[in-house]
Design a protein that fits this description.
41% helix; isomerase; 9 helices; eight-stranded parallel beta barrel; globular; alpha/beta; TIM Barrel; two-stranded antiparallel sheet
């Protein structure tokens, strides 16, 4: 199934615009795009909402017929239990996270596995999958070692090969190593561009199909449609100089990415 993430609405949801979109408005825009899946990923207000506010948002999603996934950062027990509780309120069956959060980080693979051991039995009982994302702070092989070491049927990898370039891993290597363990995919294109004066490069998002991402290779290696793995659209869109240009481009990138994904069916 294809889905949209809060990262597909990054600027529209942000305080950088004159009237930020609400989460419920993002739900409506998702449904209007012909999509029935939404991943609430790293959405800061969610960490401050009480159960009543969360229940209101969950009801809005249900009324639209949306399936919800959740995303956070960290694998400490308090963080994972909070998001397991939120998953129950939203009826979500997948939580994406990362090994490191802004405040906690395991100092070894063994410690990460031990932390996960505190909460994975609870995820198993609830039928919720935990997807740990590939990113630049952790080598993909080390992330896979954590997933394998946890020895749980409900833990896997959220594959985002764009992230690992910052640690000089190639997207292709990341895909090859992670493929057997993937349970969620983040979809965005990316590219390098020369900085002004030709001194160095900027690594940033690109309109889907116009960057460096070999998405057909990912489809061949991971086989997400055969394995029932959801593909979640997000963007790395730089600010375009003004609010109108930025939000218009963000909407265009979303349409383009969905069109691209549908063309691969």
């Amino acid at each position: 199934m294809f889905g949209l993430s809060t990262y597909a609405f990054f600027w529209q949801l942000s305080d950088r615009v004159s009237r930020p979109m609400t989460l419920e408005e993002a739900f409506v825009a998702t449904k209007e795009s012909g999509v029935d899946l939404f991943q609430i990923c790293d959405y800061a207000p969610l960490d401050t909402w009480d159960d009543a506010r969360v229940a209101d948002a969950a009801a809005s999603a249900r009324d639209l017929g949306l399936t919800i996934e959740l995303g956070t950062k960290g694998v400490d027990a308090a963080r994972l239990r909070r998001y397991l509780h939120l998953a129950d309120l939203f009826g979500a069956t997948l939580v994406r996270s990362m090994l490191y959060s802004p405040t906690t980080r395991p100092d070894s693979t063994a410690q990460a596995i031990a932390w996960l051991g505190e909460t994975l039995p609870e995820y198993e009982s609830a039928g919720v999958t935990l997807a740990l994302e590939t990113y630049e702070q952790v080598a993909t092989r080390d992330l896979v070692a954590v997933v394998e070491g946890a020895e749980s049927p409900v833990i896997g990898v959220c594959l985002d090969p764009a992230n690992v370039v910052a640690r000089l891993e190639t997207p292709g290597d990341c895909i090859a190593v992670a493929a057997p363990h993937v349970v969620n995919v983040h979809v965005k294109d990316f590219a390098f561009a020369r900085q002004d004066g030709w001194v160095g490069f900027t690594y940033s998002g690109a309109r889907m199909g116009e960057g460096l991402h070999d998405y057909p290779d990912l489809l061949r290696a991971v086989r997400p449609r055969e394995r029932g793995i959801n593909e979640i659209v997000e963007h790395w869109l730089p600010w375009q100089g003004d609010e109108e240009s930025t939000t218009r481009t963000e909407r265009d990138w979303t349409r383009t990415t969905l069109d691209y994904l549908r063309s691969t069916l």
